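Batch 3, record 17
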Amino acid sequence: MRYATLMWRRSGLPELFFAQQRALHSSRILSSEEGLKCDGAKIEKNQEECDVAIVGGGMVGLALASSLSSMPLTKHLRVAVIDDSPFLASKGYLKRDQMPDSRVSTVTPATINLFKEIGAWEHVLHQRHAFFDQMQVWDYTGLGYTRYNARDVGREYLGCVVENKVLCNSLLLSLQKKEGFENKICPTRLASMTLPSEVNHSKFAKLNLTDGGTLHAKLVVGADGSKSRVREAAGIKTTGWNYPQSAIICTVEHSSQNHCAWQRFLPAGPIALLPIGDNYSNIVWTMSPDQATQHKSMDKDKFVNSVNHALNNGYGPHPESSSLSNLLDSITGTAMSTKEKFEVPPRVLGVVSNIMAFPLGLKHANNYAVKNIVLVGDAAHTVHPLAGQGVNLGFGDVSDLARVLAEGVSVGADISQLTLLKKYERQRKTANIPMMAVLDGFQRVYSVDFWPLNILRATGFHAAQYIPPLKKNIISYAMGDQKFPLFS
Amino acid sequence: MAMRSFLRSRRSLSRSLLQPDLLRNPNPNPNYVSRSLIPALLPLRSYSPASDPTTKNPIRDAATDEINGFKSSLNPIEVAKFAAIAETWWDPEGPFKPLHLMNPTRVSFIRSTLCRHFRRDPYSPRPFEGLKILDVGCGGGILSEPLARLGAVVTGIDAVEKNINIARIHAASDPSTSSIDYTCMTAEDLVRENQKFDAVISLEVIEHVAEPLDFCKSLGALAVPGGAVVISTINRTMRAYATTIVAAEYILNWLPKGTHEWSKFVTPEELTLILQRASVSVQEMAGFVYNPLTGNWSLSDDISVNYIAFGIKESSSDSEKTRTVAEQKTDFVS
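Prediction for the assembled complex:
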């Protein structure tokens, strides 16, 4: 390999090192194939070519690259991840003495299974993460609350909170262990894209990169987030709206470790307190854009007071068991956590990170797949961060896309063919759209402070708290065990 | 020549299932129509183009002749049907859409049976590496391309020149399929050239050929002893009539009207017997079932409509020779 690289350098092509290696890799594959062919491939050897170009090396893009490299039917595919983030050049675990980052994700058991399959979960376990087995959701009117417990669905935990950078690092480490890894990362960005047409009879999309290089790929995967360049270049339209809300996120400190996920609905939106390991928790607080600006510039002590006010005694009383719940108790059988009393969330002592604010919206691509192109993760759907489901939907995309591609390879299909890609789109839309509707519905129900609606909401909490089959369904759905919200 | 035309007609037949021009002109030949109405047993049926006065066919090669005792199984009308819609082979929404939808299921049957027979790793992305496979009636290459991606050295033949041109152009655009050897010829031509293959596959062709027995003999002759023969077709049942002709051609318009003739369908029993006469013993059979809710095809035990059969060419080459000769003699006599 080193010798070959030198040869290439001598040839004077103004290519980057990584590009040379990848070109070598592809030309090597081509020449081995040519051995079998009678009339030979008509592909120039110097041309950079791959089977799957993943634009965007974030959590979802890396997970796809790693997943394709793990499965026996897809590991032969030549994969390139296009992203110029310096993070992708890092090696080894992140230092644990750093403060937890404020960008975190709640990964569900379904996502954990994906990570285990691709060998990334062991790396997460070596870094900071926090399992939680309880969840408490209540609202400021004091009319109702729900406590979920992993025992209700026979599990040890409901989910796990992990910093996004830990997820990325673990996926990168799993990818680095795969064969031919050095050929997979391209530290550059997408400038423009030309799709194959009937005229040139080519199967390859041409990607023009910002470093001046080009890459030919059979399948281009847009994993480049909610402002996806790939989606734009492919001409895929989106449907969506912005909520009149912003979210602020930050990391806070307690006096002891927190093992429960807390969410309280306030007049302007929910505030969530998620355990992130050690004595830290993460806050995702939805409020009006004005309030968000105000909170962002607040001095830290004042901010801590405001958080404790929002999580504990501000806005209204603590909810208590009511006669309604006693009645429901006598009618229905009871899940174990039905009897659990409302608890007060742990007190926040201080803020240990910057306070960040970002606007909220919902965006959904009208198509996830066109010929030669698929979208995954936020490029296909951006949701409200209400239940930490956004990234799980993205990992769901990854696992379904990898499976669909493996099935295609097993029957000798062309991985860029639309009939195959549409199968992925069908599967993911049936999973993503109900979840998006549920989250959007929640958002709408909780963004209005109007007393009849408050009572309705409280009834909803009671139903969720005291009707065991409903409760089990809600938990399994949120954990990613089942595809549809109710009774599937 | 006759053999050639036979092969072509078979191929063209399978393709004609999907062709739209059939809608406009289902049966240009009146003789052809009347004959096809006779629900005779296959060995007794004779739709040989030679006896057919409608030889004003666009494909002149399809005229009947006999070479080395292998009669052409081509049917010129069927060949014409498929030539007319060749341009649309690779349009996933075009007349060949049902074939595109069905193809992964057909390939998965071939994959599993051939992996077992040739002891290949079913988890390999290229399990057919090095196997020489013949696709008889390859059309635009809907089956040949997947076989090549699975590692096989593929030869695709078809009686329709246009199909071969389309197939060549399409395969050349992808390095993984550009090695496929496409030729416009019939199975009988290949028999004359004394070519042998590890596996001979002919999907949705036999119901379009003039003489299924001759066709199967050619396929058998092209397989090496111990090699595989795979054939898929449609059963001659009332359900097949209702679904593949009434529903698919007249109600849903999936297939051009006139694509299929019920009387030319072959039952699994008939196919097994014919293949036996061609020294091929059928080992496995599976049905294809369409789920109208999901739009997916899947393999099943139900062989009452679409089915696929996998057989092995008998390995004693001596007995194979004698048998072939004997059968040729009977054919001449009849």
